[in-house]
Specification:
α3 links the parallel β7 and β8. With 275 residues, this protein is α+β, with helices and mostly antiparallel strands. α3 packs parallel to α5. The strands form two sheets. A six-stranded mixed sheet has the order 3-4-2-1-11-10. A five-stranded mixed sheet has the order 5-6-7-8-9. The protein is built from six helices and eleven strands. It has a single domain, classed as Deoxyribonuclease I, Chain A (4-Layer Sandwich). The N and C termini lie close together (7 Å). Helices cover 22% and strands 23% of the residues.
């Protein structure tokens, strides 16, 4: 089973590229972030004609997460239990469309499926002193606690938390760490990295980094300042797998080529193949 995660940065604007990507990599499951559409204007037909079931969670023209699967899609869950809400400037907090879970795959002779998969668009943080940073850290804390409990209850669980984490866990995950420190930027602060580390401490495994170590291995390049041709990127998109699932990985990579060309998302897909 081949699972990909991709922040598409507006699905309707990149429908053709998404369809071509699914065909080129023969993807079984695609988790998407920043679909930027409501359920009523989601391009359902794109996936239906390609043989995929799809679950989408979109409340506005912002955020939005989805899972498309051609190997089964059951037990869909919009948001995780206790998912923090956000309300800036004293406004009533609202749930944002940042997490959707589903069970994909089926029992097979190779023991790969099924997999409990979550497509995640972690809050950005916006600024080190911004209200959104506290929201981001609490959002991650609650999610990590759920992951820790699930792994503690069943060490054979097949769990995948995938998506845009908006954190660069190591110095090599940004093109110039000093630039980030000098400018007081998010994504690299100690609290953010500790929040990401909590998932690894719980036992979740990143299968991509051992196969494609840094520096210079990124998943995101800003549209401004010619970041992509200058190779000034960040590694902020990950697939974190439970140990039982990670043991079945046969290959894992970042499709940097998908960042090239006209109409590209500013993120590259991350692909994991299970055998």
């Amino acid at each position: 089973m081949k699972i990909a995660t991709w922040n598409v940065n507006s699905l309707r604007a990149r429908a053709d590229r998404v369809e071509a990507f699914l065909q080129r990599h023969d993807v079984d499951v695609l988790a998407m972030q920043e679909t930027k559409c409501r359920d009523e204007n989601f391009p359902w037909e794109l996936f239906e004609r390609a043989g995929y079931e799809v679950a989408h969670f979109g409340l506005s023209q912002w955020n939005g997460v989805a899972i498309a699967s051609r190997v089964g899609l059951t037990d869909v869950q919009r948001g995780f239990p206790g998912q923090p809400h956000f309300g800036k400037g004293g406004k009533d907090p609202a749930l944002e469309a940042r997490a959707i879970g589903a069970t994909v795959g089926a029992e097979s002779a190779d023991g790969v499926g099924p997999v409990r998969l979550w497509s995640l668009y972690v809050p950005n943080g916006r600024g080190l002193q911004d209200e959104h940073m506290g929201y981001k850290l609490e959002w991650l804390r609650v999610l990590a606690e759920h992951a820790r409990e699930r792994l503690a209850d069943d060490d054979a669980t097949r769990l995948a938390l995938v998506g845009d984490w908006n954190i660069a866990p190591q110095d090599e995950d940004v093109w110039d760490m000093q630039f980030f420190l000098d400018n007081g930027l998010t994504h690299v602060s100690e609290p953010e990295r500790a929040a990401f580390g909590a998932f690894e401490d719980a036992g979740l495994v990143d299968p991509v980094r051992p196969r494609h170590p840094g520096p210079g291995v990124y998943t995101y390049w800003d549209y401004t300042q010619l970041r992509f041709p200058k190779r000034q990127g960040m590694r902020i998109d990950f697939q974190l797998l439970s140990p039982a699932l990670a043991d079945t990985v046969t290959d894992a990579w970042i499709d940097r080529d998908e960042r090239k060309g006209k109409g590209a998302s500013d993120h590259a897909p991350v692909v994991v193949e299970l055998g």
